[in-house]
Amino acid sequence: MSSPNMNLILQGQQADKTSVERIAALAGAKRITPIHAHAWRCEGVEHSGALKERVYAACFEAKIDGAFIQPGRRLTDFGLVAMDMDSTLITIECIDEIADMQGLKPQVAEITEAAMRGEIEFRESLTRRVALLKGLDAGALQRVYDERLKLSPGAETMLHAVKAAGLKTLLVSGGFTFFTDRMKERLGLDYTHSNVLEIIEGKLTGRVLNGIVDADEKKNTVERVCAELGIAPSRAIVMGDGANDLKMMGIAGLSVAFRAKPVVRAQANVALNFVGLDGILPLFE
Questions:
Q1: Overall domain count for the chain
Q2: For residue 62, is it within any domain?
Q3: Catalytic-role residue among 65, 86, 100, 245
């Protein structure tokens, strides 16, 4: 079953005109309109599941991000952008870097990866990883923030544009308040929700306080913030990269997989593998 007249947005820093024209022809596009130097709108595409698979395979091979979007969608159709933090808004997994201060990065990173792929339930994985940090000096958190935490490419451009369009911002993370609080202040975010690490006498106890922000809690948080804003979750854009993000992405009007695991890319409306977070902006007219 095909639905007529979708737009196919193609973008990539290294994308050349020949590759774009080849993929547009594969999609049967009626017109190609340049959006900017690294993005093109291919119009009048008859979208079907089989076509989507072929186009996305060709895009991936050419290191181009492709997304099928209904014509006429605007950023102002939405009221909220909700983001995961680790490996989405920022380039690192904070817990892996904290563990590195303890000489435990390989053990912790292995559990992180398994959880992101959906092989271990997130709640169990976080409990196991945090337990490994017991006894670590809490100063390690500040060192990770100062020395290792970097914003993902395009993060500030994207946030500037969504705020200018009147959308609210939510950072919802299976990571820690130490980092989300600092991101909120630094980037002027409206809402944050994440886990609280227990610290006693300047040391991590290996425990999390007040329950764990897992996949269900992330989804509940998006619903709660939408309710507070008086909008339906269908007016939320939700961005994530791991299995823990799938439930909140599942209720969104637009779900965006950013540099994500295959299980997440497969279920998202849009996958950004090569461009930055500002790659959501050319999707809208």
A1: 1
A2: yes
A3: 86
86 catalytic per annotation: yes
Tens of pLDDT, residue by residue over 155-201, are: 999 999 999 999 999 999 999 999 999 999 999 999 999 999 999 99
**Does 96 qualify as catalytic in the annotation?**
no
Is 93 inside any structural domain? no
| Residue 75 and residue 162 in contact, taking contact as beta carbons nearer than 8 Å | yes
Q: Say how far residue 265 (Cα) sits from the centre of its chain.
A: 10
Q: Which of 16, 77, 84, 278 is catalytic?
A: 84
Task: Give residue-wise pLDDT tens across range 101-122.
Answer: 889 999 999 998 888 888 988 8
Q: What is the pTM (predicted TM-score) of this model? A: 0.94
Is 247 part of a structural domain of the chain?
no
Residue 17 lies in a domain: yes
Angle at 155 (CA atoms; ends 238, 143), nearest 5 degrees = 105
Residue 11 belongs to domain spanning: 1-71
Distance CA 113, CA 237 (A): 25
User: What is the CATH classification number for the domain harbouring 15?
Assistant: 3.30.70.260
